[in-house]
Structures are given as structure tokens and as C-alpha cells.
Specification:
Layout (H helix, E strand, L loop, with lengths): L4 E5 L5 E6 H9 L3 E4 L6 E2 L1 H8 L6 E3 L4 E3 L3 E4 L14 H8 L15 E5 L14 E5 H7 L37 H9 L6
Parallel strand pairs: 1-7
Antiparallel strand pairs: 1-2, 3-4, 3-7, 5-6, 8-9
Length: 196
């Protein structure tokens, strides 16, 4: 239960990250956040949320002397900025960027059925960068071999580039995890500045 996902909003009610329930309840207890009711968007401090939690039948954490419901959305009381973290160049984030899809044939595969392919092969001086690594299924990777996509007559379905996810946490809000997040996530998603 402590690892449940909680949407975190800054003081201006802009989605900035997803935290686990343990962190969210800690922020609430310390007075750094308030719970946002998904029904009417009213806010609750720790004491009010604890009082409201007395009637909870499920989705709560039992402490020694009380129980407290796991919030779905919290709003920070002081922080009004955004978390600007650079997106980590990692295997996991390449899978996220390419949506577990072979960038040559366009088919979606399970993770273990995909490999990382250097668009410009290492034998031709290609480096491991956002712009040169793509996901490829094993048959496409074997077919392409150590050639450029044009030489292999295997055009990419999408030019690889560094992801432009919401820069707040590197968190992709493209698949909303909870219905109560929808209004906040939609606003954050559509407010992202697009660049060519």
C-alpha cells in the first residue's frame, strides 16, 4: 500500500511528478502538502484527512492509533516551481520512448524480444546516443546487420531523438493511471512546449 502512486501538484495545481503513498503521507504529515479530494477538489490537511479516514473501509494504511486513507492527489503548499530533471539516457527510457515497438517493421513486441540497434553501426563510427539507438526486433536487427538503414532498404518508422516528456520528472503522463488524475494530467500534457 505504501508504494501506491499519488499524483503530486505544485502550489499552482500543475502536475509535477508521481510519488509513492509513503512519501505523499509524509509530506501531508509535515504540512508540506494537502490532499485534494477527487470528487469536489476540496483540500484537507493531515488532521482533517485523518478525521475523514475514520470512515474508510478500504484503501487505507493502519497506523498504531489511527488509520489514514491513501490519497490519489496531493497539492504542495509551498513549492510552486517545477522539477527540471534531464531525462536519463538508459535502456529503460529507450524502451519507453519507442513504446516497445521495432523501429523498422513497426510491430510491438515483448521486451525480451527486442534489442537495441545502432542506426549508424558502431563499425561505421556510430555512437550510443539518443539519436542513434532504436529498438529493433531480432529478425530486423539481423536483416539490417552492420549496414545503414538506407543500404538495407529498411527505413525507420520514426527518427530517433531525445524524448520530450514533461520535463518535471521525466515521468510520462501519456497513460493516466487513475481517473482522478485526468484533469490535472491533461493540463500538464497540453502545456508542454513543443520544439522541432
Amino acid at each position: 500500500m505504501l508504494n501506491e502512486s499519488v499524483l503530486v501538484l505544485n502550489r499552482s495545481w500543475i502536475a509535477i511528478q508521481v510519488a509513492n503513498a509513503g512519501r505523499a503521507i509524509t509530506l501531508l504529515y509535515q504540512g508540506y502538502a494537502k490532499v485534494v479530494s477527487p470528487h469536489d477538489f476540496s483540500t484537507y490537511d493531515f488532521d482533517n484527512w485523518k478525521e475523514l479516514s475514520k470512515t474508510a473501509d478500504d484503501y487505507y494504511i493502519q497506523a498504531v492509533n489511527f488509520k489514514i486513507m491513501i490519497p490519489e492527489v496531493i497539492v504542495l503548499t509551498a513549492f510552486n516551481g517545477i522539477y527540471r530533471r534531464d531525462i536519463k539516457f538508459s535502456r529503460r527510457n529507450i524502451f519507453e520512448r519507442d513504446k516497445s515497438t521495432c523501429q523498422y517493421c513497426g510491430e510491438k513486441f515483448k521486451k525480451w524480444e527486442l534489442t537495441l540497434d545502432h542506426v549508424v553501426p558502431r563499425s561505421l563510427g556510430g555512437r550510443s546516443t539518443w539519436e542513434n539507438l532504436v529498438l529493433a526486433c531480432v529478425p530486423c536487427n539481423v536483416k539490417k546487420g552492420s549496414r545503414l538503414p538506407d543500404e538495407a532498404e529498411m527505413p525507420l518508422i520514426r527518427k530517433p531523438r531525445k524524448p520530450r516528456w514533461i520535463p518535471y520528472s521525466g515521468e510520462s503522463f501519456s497513460s493516466v493511471r487513475k481517473q482522478s488524475w485526468q484533469r490535472f494530467v491533461d493540463a500538464a500534457y497540453w502545456d508542454v512546449e513543443l520544439k522541432d
